[in-house]
Amino acid sequence: MKFKDYYQTLGLPREASADDIKHAYRRLARKYHPDLNKEADAEARFKELGEAYEVLKDPEKRAAYDDVGKRWQGGADQAPPPGWDSGYEFRGGQADGGGFGEHSDFFEALFGRRGAQAQRRAPPRAQDHHAKVQIDLVDAYRGAQRGIRLQVPTLDAQGHVVLSERTLDVAIPAGVREGQHLRLAGQGAPGFDGAPAGDLYLEIHFRPHPLYRVDGRDVYLELPVAPWEAALGATVDVPLPDGSVQMAVPAGSSQGRKLRLKGKGIPGKTPGDLYVLLQIAMPPPANDAQRQAWAELARQAAFNPRADMGAK
After folding, report:
1. What is the CATH number of the domain that holds 256?
2. What is the pLDDT of residues 144-183, one digit of tens each?
3. Any idea of the CA torsion for 30, 35, 6, 105, to the nearest 10 degrees?
4. pTM
């Protein structure tokens, strides 16, 4: 994902004032409004301007965006820092999947997809907050008690919005899914005049794992096997996020064969499955005896893997 330079979009320096941002947006929005500008890229440019203005006019969003920009070293084309889009707390509650469909992937990754209905609703209590957080996959298997650090927009002595940090002790239930929201009652905005505090909704995402890929409750693992294990069959150990299990590799298995371990995915009322994708790992011949063994296998097998391609 590429970094979106909203200041560049509006033609402004990073220290631009709120008035500078408003005037730049109004000037450029008139220039690129699709009803007034019939150039092919006018509508796309108009949407980019609207997204940039929505972020930079909002002190909370701007503070989080500026913090991400400081950590995203090397410019827009560089890989994002780990966890760049997590740990920022904003006003507004649980996402309902609507309202922000026209925004870029960068915007939705950082600010979520809170729906317009949730923003318009005026609850009798204080305002809810939301934040995206990352947990380890093993926590979804076992459940855990974790300290979650959030960057929270607050006002400094000069009245500027800055990010401060708070840590919450959160119970992560076993079976939590990617994208699920955990409600922390009373951890949102404080109430006034006896009104109850708002709630905090944590949108759960899994940290990238070197071994596993998650799809819903199903988990995928690429498992290396030796050529003889694939050819002759074998019983091998399969690592799980919370342990290991033995699995039979059928004789004659080929590269990429998918085997299912039922119920070994993320727990739940209907647990997910763990899918093992076999990857045949070729051992390099370490000595003359091993090279001779490979040569003998080549003579005995008379196997041409390119036969279906018409190649010799």
Report:
1. 2.60.260.20
2. 999 999 998 887 777 778 889 999 999 999 999 999 999 9
3. 170
4. 0.76
